[in-house]
Amino acid sequence: MKKVFLLVAVAIIIVALTVGAFVFWWQNKTEILPEEIKPGIEVFLPKINEEISSPLEIKGTVNGNGWFGFEGQVGTVKLLDSEGNELAVNYLKATTDWMQPFVRFETTLDFVSPNINEGTLVFNNENPSGLPQYNRQFILPVKINKTVEGAVQVKVYFNNNSTDSQYACKEVLPVDRGVSETKAVARAALEELLQGPTRQEILEGYFTSINPNVKIQKLTIENTVAKVDFDITLEKNVGGSCRVTAIRNQITQTLLQFNTVKSVVISINGRTEDILQP
Known about the structure:
Elements: H1 2-28, E1 41-45, E2 51-52, E3 56-62, E4 73-81, E5 86-94, E6 103-109, E7 118-125, E8 137-144, E9 151-160, E10 173-180, H2 185-195, H3 199-203, E11 206-207, E12 216-222, E13 225-230, H4 241-256, E14 263-268
Helix pairs in contact: 2-4
């Protein structure tokens, strides 16, 4: 009889230990990440949601799981604003032996702060194989400081839906943009113009008549005449006198805001006579 009680007691203890172990595992299982989904990268600087400004110093380490050093670097990082616009990109340079499992890295990003506070640092690993299954990415949200020391305010000109239709082609309205202090401030203003209106500006009725992805090939200002040369994208599939007039006015007014500019000459691949035809 005593043996029966002893066996029952042992069985109860075993069941209790099993249940206890299961409960402990269940409560703690969400805290254990499978090895294959650990990021393999740790960013020391900046921290998540930290406010950043230019120049931005970035430091961290990679430690496997698809993240490793190759030819002195461990990947790339780019800064995006909340609309997905790329503000800066650079390589992550190894500061310790890149052939070791743990590699420290650092880099610096220089950028012009947008009129948007939210941003994202997107880290991509070094993948010499080129095979997509070996790509790794790490996302770090940040806050972009819009008050950058040394920044200057410029105006860029867009069309707006509020304009009387009678003057819609000719009238363009200014919006303020902040750019880093530079001797080439006129070019910086044009670059802002070519980026188009922000999401908030679109909600306020602003729009651009200029094609996306237009590139400035050359800009000179001599004797109060600004001469700006664009690539062929400026006039690609552009038609109608209204749109042509709007494009010219957007560019011209953006440059005329500067005291050193009294007139503007627009060219495409060096041509001035037969461009932007209605």
